[in-house]
Amino acid sequence: MAKIELTRIPFIKNALKSRYPQLAVFIVMLIGYIFAILAGLIGTPVGSHNFSIVFVWIAWWAILILVAVPFFGRGWCAVCPIPLPGEWLQRGAVLSPPDKRPKWLNLRVPKMFRNIWLQNISFLLLALFSSVLLTTPNITGIVLAAMLFAAIGLSTVFERRAFCRYLCPVGGFIGLYSQTAPIELRIKDKQVCVTCEGKPCYNGSQAGYGCPWDVFPGGLTKNTYCGLCMECIRTCPHDNIAVNLRPFSADLAKPSTRMDEAFKAFIMLGSAIIYAGVLLGPWGAFKDAAYNVGSGAWFIYAAAFLAIIFVVLPSLFTLGILNTKNTLSLKQRFASLSTALIPLGLMFWVAFSLSFVLTNASYIIAALSDPLGLGWDLFGTANATWQPMLTSMLAPAQTLALVGGLIWSARTAQKAAGEVKVSPIPVIVYCFIATSLMLWLLL
């Protein structure tokens, strides 16, 4: 499939170049986000009847994992409300171009933090406390508020969207899996960027802001760090930037060489396996350990969680590729071949989320009428009874997702192994074993 330039369509191009449609979505999202914080803090403590739990961890999560990330990549980041207040404060403007003189400190993020290790850590922190986060509204409200204030604080100290690029726990895995999506933003002609004076797409101009994600579009080859904010489309004086429709997983044709991205793949793969076992499995002791935060059993659970992600899974992967010797170091082969785990991890999360979402989706209907659990009945659905949805389709859908993920990862392994000139068989076997384990846990 050849790339199709979506911005050739006048309606799409005009909608992306105008800030007003995006601003309208931003405002709706920000209002919803603030309401979720308030609902978590002042609403009912019963999670299944509180807007913050139902709409963040069921409705939003379903849209994110099942639709937004697989099909639109960084599409959520394009409308995420978290960076908005900090960005408006940083620029001293909502729509008009910022003054040349920075309003705040505008410091450069230190080089040692210009990676996704902090995002890896922040995701793991949420993952370790997820049992409380997913069921306790006030904890969800506190975490949502903390993310908003962290984004504001970082915007007053550092330039651009430091929170989104280097700290956001959601942004890290969206960036990783956005490589598989069929949407991309790329330049049309590299030579035009080479000769362009001032590089307004990166530095900004009277037409708009410099890239909030600290990315030069002329060097963009992957979706990982492009937040699809569309500022470069608005500032490019040569109409040299396009949004394209492309084949799935096009970015994975060239494997990564970064260890922070490699370990993100293991973090996401391992977390999906652990969640499937603990939250959906029949082992009550594991579930109790995960839910009793602060207890001795929880500390054992946390240690096991981290050991599986940082020791067991990477070690088994390393053992598999030890004999795939060539001129590259083991570290380089590890980082490159771990690219094959990205499609598998995404499909693991799709399969797990199908169970979680379809089991709990009926809570959305009741929460629409009574979002704070205060006895309201706005739409006449407050007393809707809980019942799992599409139960007959769940197992086939999960099986299809997992088997499809295995085939997808096997093809990716062949491409990655071809790039580093080694055999893909150890990686394919590793993916097969991981898929078999996930099938057993879910089905």
Description:
The chain is 60% helix and 3% strand. It is an all-alpha fold. It folds into two domains: 1-252, no CATH class; 255-442, no CATH class. The relative contact order is 0.12. The chain has helices spanning 10-17, 19-42, 51-72, 84-91, 117-128, 130-133, 137-157, 162-166, 169-177, 190-195, 200-203, 231-235, 259-279, 284-291, 296-321, 330-337, 341-360, 362-369, 391-420, 425-442, and strands at 4-5, 183-187, 241-245. Helix 3 runs antiparallel to helix 17 and helix 19 (391-420) runs antiparallel to helix 20 (425-442).
Keywords:
single chain, mainly alpha, 2 domains, 3-stranded antiparallel β-sheet, 20 helices, 3 strands, about 60% helix
Taken from the alpha-carbon principal axes, the silhouette is: globular
Main structural class? mainly alpha
Strand proportion: under 5%
Strand arrangement in the largest pleated sheet? 1-3-2
Number of domains: 2
Mean pLDDT over all positions: 94
What is the CA-atom radius of gyration, in angstroms? 22 Å
Secondary structure tally: strands = 3
Largest sheet: 3 strands, antiparallel
SSE order: EHHHHHHHHHEHHHEHHHHHHHH
Q: How many distinct helices?
A: 20
Helix fraction, binned, reads 55-70%
Unreliable residue runs: none
Specify the oligomeric state. Answer: single chain
Tell me the distance between the termini.
Answer: 35 Å
